Amino acid sequence: MRTALLQSSGRPGSVDGNLKVLDEAAGRAAAAGAGLVTAPEMFLTGYAIGDDIARLAEPADGEGADAVAEIAVRHGLAIAYGYPEAFSGSVFNSAQLISADGDRLANYRKTHLFGCFERDHFTPGERHVVQTELNGLTVGLLICYDVEFPENVRAHALAGTDLLVVPTAQMHPFQFVAESMIPVRAFENQMYVAYVNRVGQEGEFEFIGLSVLAGPDGVARTRAGRDEQLVFADADPAFLAASREANPYLRDRRPELYV
């Protein structure tokens, strides 16, 4: 499945503006044959928007989701995006995957909140493995800091995730995550990992870009720079199956030794 990584901070604070950015990117992704376009963490509203997070938060089936679904249907591809989710009096840092038919396939709430900013504005999620089927692949969702905990990614590997989609808001000086950690996570867990970052200055945060899709051989299939970009790579089920057959990590585990 050709996967498009939308590296952009969109228009922080403007849902309509961000939907326009997503619509334009989805059109380009569809023209390039992509079956999935992934946007960064909190893309629908912007990340560093303070108390506007709560004001702009909406349910998983809210107006923003409907608008994303319309874009997905019109361009004929699936869309994963980050947004603030309002649910039962709480706000979650969430990511949702919507199919090319406009169906809401999966919704994930960030389980590991990073820093005071996130802990002040969000409630942590409690479900660490969320998956769905898309175009012959089992697709899982994590968000940014979540992928830095090896237990999270290993749980996805054991649950059969083929492509782990990670909307991200990674900031300076943590570029080593995109450059080094993500390819290692993909290799040690025998999966594809799509890590899609914001870019540029937002309030106190400098987002570093460097979005990457890494394969189960630990090789980056595509890498973005530090500007707004739309980059592409393929998640190949046949290559994944061959890699898993050749790599013994998951077969050679001794879980009885791990506490």
Characterize the structure shown.
The protein has 259 residues and is of the alpha/beta class. The protein has 7 helices and 14 strands. The strands form 3 sheets. It has a 6-stranded mixed β-sheet. Strands 6-7-8-9-12-13 form a 6-stranded mixed β-sheet, covered by helices on one side.
Rg result: 17 Å
Mean pLDDT: 97
Structural class: alpha/beta
Beta percentage is 25-35%
Q: Give the H and E element order.
A: EHEHHEEEHEEHEHEEEEEEH
How many strands, which pairing sense, and closed or not: the largest β-sheet?
6 strands, mixed
Q: What is the subunit arrangement here? A: single chain
Give the distance, in angstroms, between the N- and C-terminal Cα atoms: 37 Å
Summed up, the helix count is 7
Could you name the ranges where pLDDT drops below 50 across 5 or more consecutive residues? none
Helix content: 25-40%
Gross morphology is globular
What is the β-strand count? Answer: 14
Strand neighbour order, sheet with most strands:
5-4-3-2-1-14
Set out the fold topology.
Elements: E1 2-7, H1 15-31, E2 36-38, H2 52-56, H3 63-75, E3 78-87, E4 90-98, E5 104-109, H4 115-121, E6 131-134, E7 137-141, H5 150-159, E8 163-167, H6 176-189, E9 192-196, E10 199-202, E11 205-208, E12 212-214, E13 220-223, E14 229-234, H7 237-246
Parallel strand pairs: 1-2, 2-3, 7-8, 8-9
Antiparallel strand pairs: 1-14, 3-4, 4-5, 6-7, 9-12, 10-11, 12-13
Helix pairs in contact: 1-3
